[in-house]
Amino acid sequence: MPTGKLKKFVSDKGFGFITPDEGGEDIFAHTLQFVGDGDTLRGGERVTYEAEWDDRKGKYRASTWTVDASGAGAAMLPGVLKKYFTDKGFGFIEPQDGSEDLFAHQRQFSGDPNSIQDGMKVKYEVEWDGKKGKNKAGPDLGVLTMVSAAAAAAMAVVAAVAAAAMACSSQIMANPWVAAHRLFGGKLHFREL
């Protein structure tokens, strides 16, 4: 059974659109054909579906569909934000696998939009853009995860301090002053109280 992602879901009207994982045009999906509790749908869910041609609309629609319980989904792919236009609110991702650059809008990024900058490492999903006829970065919250150089450096410092603390833990019990001296590189200053 084909898989995809439910997007543009209008809960009060009971319909949305499935973006197929294999690409192509979005598929209309109504809760009348949904197998499961339609009240739990919010959009962004991974789904499996069967499609049929709708002669009246001239498009495919889901004849049956359900939430994909297998947990399988589009993989988060690594890349770098190659160029970002702050004034326009969009940029382009250079995929790590060397494939064609992908369009990405600012609203797709998690975190503070003011921190978006060229050269940031990102993780993203790929989605088919029917209007442009090519792939783009997916639209869900959290799809693009920014890892700035400053955040990566801060995580490395925390990891290094934790490792040093663990290495000194056995020495702390024996002689806490020597362990502290080693941990902080000999930069301990004592004041008289």
Amount of beta strand:
25-35%
Oligomer: single chain
Strand order of the largest sheet: 3-2-1-4-5
Distance between the termini: 74 Å
Radius of gyration computed on alpha carbons: 25 Å
Helix content: 10-25%
Annotation field: number of helices: 2
Structural class: alpha+beta
H/E element sequence: EEEEEEEEEEEHH
Question: What's the story with the biggest beta sheet?
Answer: 5 strands, antiparallel
Q: Which spans have pLDDT < 50 for at least 5 consecutive residues? A: 140-148, 187-193
User: What is the β-strand count?
Assistant: 11
The coarse silhouette is elongated
Give structural attributes.
193 residues; alpha+beta; five-stranded antiparallel beta sheet; four-stranded antiparallel beta sheet; 2 helices; 11 strands; elongated; disordered C terminus
Topology (SSEs and partners):
Elements: E1 3-10, E2 15-20, E3 27-30, E4 46-54, E5 59-67, E6 77-85, E7 90-95, E8 102-105, E9 121-124, E10 126-129, E11 134-137, H1 149-174, H2 176-183
Antiparallel strand pairs: 1-2, 1-4, 2-3, 4-5, 6-7, 6-9, 7-8, 10-11
Helix pairs in contact: 1-2
Q: Could you walk me through the main structural features you see in this protein, from its secondary elements to its overall organization?
A:
The strands form 3 sheets. This protein has a 5-stranded antiparallel sheet, with no helix packed on it. A 4-stranded antiparallel sheet has the order 8-7-6-9, with no helix packed on it. The protein is an alpha+beta fold and 193 residues long. It has helices spanning 149-174, 176-183, and strands at 3-10, 15-20, 27-30, 46-54, 59-67, 77-85, 90-95, 102-105, 121-124, 126-129, 134-137. The radius of gyration is 25 Å and the shape is elongated. The chain is 18% helix and 35% strand. The termini are far apart.
